[in-house]
Design brief:
Radius of gyration: 22 Å
Strand content: 15-25%
Strand order of the largest sheet: 1-2-3-4
Number of domains: 2
Length: 263
Amino acid sequence: MAAYDPIGPIAALLPDFGASELHRGTGIIRISLPVPLSDGRQPVFILDVGTSGGAISVRETVPAHLPSFCPDRHINHDGTFCLFWRAVDGIEVVNPETARDWLETLVRFLQLQLRAARLRRWPDGRGRSHGAAAFYQHRAEAAAARLGEPFATDIVEGRLGTKRKGGSAEGTAIRVMKEGRRLFSVWERSRRVVNLRQPCLCPAGSGSRPVILRSCGSHAAAAADLAIELNEMAAAEREFWQSMKGSPCCGTMADCPLAGASA
């Protein structure tokens, strides 16, 4: 059976977005897409939307509004956009409804791009990590959600990090940090919170009779998972940027790791 071609339903919905088809070839369509902004402007993007085996790619035909490559702005080496992480929140266009979802995601992505150009940082929280780090980020976010607030918000807003400390008979401890303050530590080898008798990290651990961590449901396991996945995420992120060493920096984002490396 031939793979489903998503170009048709995408093209059919273009008028709903004020967009138009400029050209169509085998497995590709060129479109003109206005992107509405909060200030009333609607800059127009000329984009090439391609498909191969049902998978969709999209890039600016000729870089005009966007850099041709920028990991921090989720633009790949070949100019294609990282609209989503396919393994977790991907959109497979198989009907008009999913075609609309895809086009709405594209418009939101371009709106964020224009805000990023003004702010010189990605405006939607910390965004998705790069490469394999996205896998660990997803698992860290799931662990944070099991712990509840404020962890679920803190991880999205980039307030959590880790530090490793060795020199113990138990091995290396991973400290979970929030804006320079240690929240708790986990033994890396055994994936166990160092102090299971500390008050739980959730609201039940505060008040006049705090519940200790090891007695608060699955929160001890969630805390250990959070520490391990945050640490793995940071390591994978460093590896990603190391693999990008020597790539050109577009100069549009503050604190981009490529800025010094490509100077």
